[in-house]
Recover the amino acids of this structure.
């Protein structure tokens, strides 16, 4: 038969919740140490992927333009060969009609050459434009790669220094979460997500909420110190606890003693 879990007192619930906050705050400090580096690294990686896609697309367009230019060059070569053949045939014609027909074919092939030369010039201009854009994009990519390399080194150095501590804290946080009542845990996560500093559970400092710094009435302070109910700040909604309970339990050291 499964052993029934012992009902926690309000004081124990608050103690477990505050303990979780202290652990998560240490994890938050490691994130602050990393700063915006993880986001910057991810953004640079996305940008580089986009630049590479653009370079690949431009190269594909350049390849197509190269094929188009080669086609026109073949047309010129073929037209030149036909002109030579027609000119040779001119010496063998037997009447004016054949002569005029060959002359017309020569003129058509000469026009074909002129048209192909015009298309080549246009294609060269397009190739030049695409190549310039590609080179500019490649230069930008190289600059971003250099920035990414430096930021990765910086981030790796921080991660090496904090990896062991972060892993231990994450393990502690997971264990601490199991000790917190599910209803309080949901409220805790919701409040943490609402504030950039991740503070969901705070103490009283100089008669004020340590989260929003608004004054807390004496009656509310007494309710907090009694540890008989969960007391939220009437201004910011954070849960207010009595720090002394963790000092007494030996979880944290009294600030004055440090």
């Amino acid at each position: 038969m499964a052993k029934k879990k012992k009902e926690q007192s309000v004081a124990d619930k608050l103690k477990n919740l505050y303990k979780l906050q202290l652990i998560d705050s240490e994890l938050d400090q490691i994130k602050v140490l990393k700063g915006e580096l993880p986001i910057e690294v991810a953004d640079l990686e996305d940008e580089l992927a986009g630049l590479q896609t653009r370079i690949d697309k431009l190269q594909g367009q350049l390849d197509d333009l190269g094929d188009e230019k080669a086609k026109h060059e073949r047309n010129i070569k073929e037209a030149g060969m036909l002109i030579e053949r027609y000119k040779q045939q001119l010496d063998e014609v037997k009447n004016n009609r054949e002569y005029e027909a060959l002359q017309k074919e020569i003129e058509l092939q000469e026009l074909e050459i002129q048209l192909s030369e015009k298309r080549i010039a246009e294609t060269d201009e397009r190739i030049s434009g695409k190549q310039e854009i590609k080179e500019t994009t490649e230069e930008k990519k190289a600059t971003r790669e250099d920035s990414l390399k430096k930021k990765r080194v910086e981030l790796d150095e921080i991660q090496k220094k904090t990896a062991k501590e972060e892993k231990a804290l994450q393990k502690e946080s997971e264990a601490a979460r199991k000790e917190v009542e599910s209803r309080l845990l949901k409220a805790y996560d919701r409040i943490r997500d609402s504030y950039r500093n991740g503070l969901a559970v705070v103490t009283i400092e100089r008669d004020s909420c340590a989260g929003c710094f608004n004054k807390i009435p004496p009656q509310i302070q007494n309710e907090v110190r009694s540890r008989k109910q969960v007391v939220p700040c009437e201004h910011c909604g954070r849960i207010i606890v009595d720090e002394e309970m963790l000092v007494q339990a030996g979880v944290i050291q009294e600030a004055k003693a440090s």
Summary: The two ends are 47 Å apart (CA to CA). Residues 20 and 176 are 6 Å apart (CA to CA).
